[in-house]
Specification:
By secondary structure, the protein is an all-alpha fold. The chain is 80% helix and 0% strand. α2 packs parallel to α18 (436-451), α11 packs antiparallel against α13 (293-317) and α13 runs antiparallel to α23 (548-555). The radius of gyration is 28 Å and the shape is globular. 44% of the residues are buried.
Length: 689
């Protein structure tokens, strides 16, 4: 065999894993298409084959929840006390003193700029008329964050101290972070009862994983010399951990505290959909339902201000090089606030009566009404154009989406044949030029476009995902992906899963194009990055809930609004990672390219882009996870699929449906995450990184 192989010409094509995977997927897809008329079960999973998994999950979880409900209700009653105390402190403290405390803290942490941010930010909250609701939200955060910090720190320390269970704990953290946020609320609602405690517990659960990961990462990065010195000093393991290793890892741990705070605030807002507490999240939801977009935007800006203040102030604690400003000035600011309160105590206006920005909200509503009236035709044309010519064909395929009403003609079987023939010709041309895998993928893409993602035959989807998993991470990942998808298929959630896959996939594709282009421009022209960077910072600090407001203001409820909200939330990682990868090419590679006479475009195409590929793939991975996270929130404004099922399950207190749909969403996100990470690792190994 080796002698025969040696006699082969050097240009002989090699049947790589990618070619094999694409070829198998193409054959399975063609077989399903050919047998569609005689074997309809290949296209749609028969209802008789569906297992009542949702009912089984519901019965099992209901029994479990009923068993532990007394203990949970006791814990909930205990947690009401610190919540009541936090509410009493924040709502009972005069607003000038709270503004003074935040301003003084801002001065100490960041000087004049951060002090001004705190003063103006809370001044806006006061003028908005949502001071009391804002303090209720902060009270929830103030109680949930210590719980999340303790839980996350405990998990991180346990994973570090017991390596045998580290893999299992990391898997649990993956599940906690990939399960949609709404899915937490359904079982917690039955377990802890109606009220703000549900939001508190859900917030603690959701915010614990970032803390756990950063604690573990910080402990793993402690220098071996420091650990050896602690051992040589004769300290016990407890002393080594808490007196040496944890202080050494404090910078990374403070990063976890920052992320924990942001996650807790985001989840507290989401928990407002169950009502029962007069906080900012409930105000946003209530005004959105009433179509009072001016007030909704005003309440949403309060959330944004809280997020920015928490992010900036806690972020300085995670920066080891951050300087601390004069404590005396901070104390002076605080004394001035107390003196102002004492001096004007009798004439101090009630925070609830300060609605100075209501006229602004009214003008926003009026301006929005005037804008939609004058530009309604253009907005509808834009929305309908994207829906009819892009999203709908992706969803149900060209053979169903092309109608005389939208396209001006009807799709015929002959057109399908011509489409496949054109795709096959283009694929053969690519294969002739050496891109066999690209040619096969082009033909597969044409078939998906003709059929529609929501109508794809289940054997084709399973085969395609298995092929991707095999190429990205080996047979083990391919088999795992098939087994996980099979659980969705057997549970009867397959059609809803494909709908979720369609919308999130379309949003990820749009984010990859737009975010990649913006990241490229930011890497090539620094002036673009100076404009884009603060926008990205703002978008990353805005809680998910708030992204729904501007799209609803302009495009109303519908799938297109959900698509835009997902894109706005998920595009930032693609921008950041693309730019970061392109600007961090090693200097020796750039010098070698310049000395060889390469132009700027050639350096970008042949040096920077290949080296940045792993980083860009990680950005794509984060974009996918962000899209799935936002997909469930977008169910509030009219999406279909698993997100809608989770939201309906919350309203109906259907634990089985909520957990099953949430698990299906987590499975899709997990598979996408592992496949993209596999390709990124492959590129890193190819580059020797």
């Amino acid at each position: 065999m080796s002698a025969q192989a040696d006699t082969l010409p050097a240009s002989a094509p090699r049947l790589t894993a990618g070619i094999q995977a694409a070829l198998i997927t193409l054959v399975v897809g063609a077989a399903c298409l050919a047998l569609e008329g005689t074997a309809p079960w290949l296209v749609k999973w028969p209802a008789a084959w569906v297992l009542p998994a949702t009912e089984w999950v519901g019965v099992a979880l209901t029994w479990l929840l009923e068993t532990i409900k007394p203990a949970a209700r006791m814990f909930a009653s205990l947690m009401r006390h610190p919540m009541d105390w936090a509410n009493a402190v924040l709502n009972g403290t005069p607003w000038p003193i709270l503004i003074g405390v935040v301003t003084a803290l801002g001065w100490y942490l960041g000087g004049l700029a951060m002090a001004a941010l705190g003063f103006l930010g809370l001044g806006f909250v006061l003028a908005s008329g949502y001071w009391s609701e804002g303090m209720n939200t902060l009270a929830l955060v103030a109680v949930s964050v210590p719980l999340a910090l303790l839980l996350g720190a405990g998990i991180g320390i346990l994973a570090n101290e017991v390596p045998r269970i580290k893999g299992w704990l990391l898997a649990v953290l993956d599940v906690m972070q990939t399960v949609p946020t709404f899915a937490y609320l359904t079982p917690l609602l039955l377990l802890f009862g109606f009220g703000p405690v549900v939001g508190l517990i859900a917030s603690a659960i959701y915010a614990a994983p970032p803390m756990a990961r950063n604690v573990l990462l910080g402990l793993e990065r402690v220098e071996p010399e420091i650990k050896d010195a602690a051992i040589m000093s004769g300290g016990t393991r407890f002393q080594q951990l808490f007196q040496v290793e944890i202080p050494s890892a404090s910078t990374q741990i403070m990063v976890g505290v920052n992320q924990c705070l942001m996650a807790a605030l985001s989840m507290v807002i989401i928990a407002a959909v169950i009502g029962g507490f007069n906080d900012i999240g409930w105000e946003v939801l209530l005004t959105m339902r009433k179509a009072q977009f001016g007030q909704s935007l005003l309440a949403g800006m309060v959330i944004v201000i809280f997020a920015i203040l928490i992010d900036r102030m806690s972020g300085t604690l995670a920066a080891p090089e951050a300087r601390r400003y004069s404590l005396r000035v901070s104390l002076v600011v605080l004394v001035v606030a107390v003196a102002f309160t004492a001096l004007f105590w009798t004439s101090l206006p009630n925070a609830a009566s300060l609605t100075l920005l209501d006229p602004v909200a009214e003008r926003v509503d009026q301006g929005l009404t005037d804008f939609t009236r004058s530009n309604g035709a253009a907005l509808d044309a834009f929305k309908n154009g994207v829906m009819f010519y892009v999203l709908l064909p992706l969803r149900i395929g060209l053979d169903q989406a092309v109608l005389p009403f939208t396209w001006g003609f009807a799709w015929t079987p002959a057109m399908s044949l011509w489409l496949f023939a054109g795709g096959a010709a283009a694929g053969l041309l690519l294969a002739w030029q050496g891109g066999v895998t690209a040619g096969l993928m082009l033909v597969i893409g044409v078939g998906i476009l003709e059929t529609g993602i929501s109508n794809l035959p289940w054997p084709f989807v399973l085969t395609g995902v298995a092929a991707l998993g095999w190429v990205a991470g080996g047979r083990r990942l391919g088999l795992l992906a098939v087994c996980l998808l099979a659980t969705i298929l057997l549970s009867g959630l397959w059609e809803r899963a494909l709908l979720s896959l369609y919308l999130s996939g379309a949003a990820v594709f749009a984010c990859a194009l737009v975010g990649g282009a913006v990241g490229l421009a930011s890497a090539v022209w620094p002036v673009v990055w100076r404009v884009v960077r603060p926008i990205c910072d703002m978008l990353q600090t805005i809680p998910l809930f708030v992204f729904l407001i501007p799209v609803l203001m302009v495009f109303q409820i519908g799938e297109f609004s959900a698509f835009l909200a997902i894109c706005a939330y998920a595009v930032v990682p693609m921008i950041r990672y693309t730019r970061h990868g392109l600007v961090n090419t090693p200097d020796d590679l750039l010098e070698a390219a310049v000395s060889s006479g390469a132009s700027d475009w050639q350096i970008l195409r042949d040096v920077r882009a290949p080296y940045a590929a792993p980083t860009i793939l990680l950005g794509l991975n984060q974009t996918i996870l962000y899209a799935f996270a936002m997909l469930v929130i977008a169910a509030l404004i009219g999406t279909t699929g698993l997100g809608q099922s989770i939201y309906l399950a919350l309203g109906q207190a259907d634990v089985g449906l909520g957990i099953s749909a949430g698990a299906a969403m987590a499975i899709l996100a997990f598979i996408a995450d592992r496949i993209v990470q596999g390709f990124a690792e492959e590129r890193r190994q190819a580059l020797g990184l």
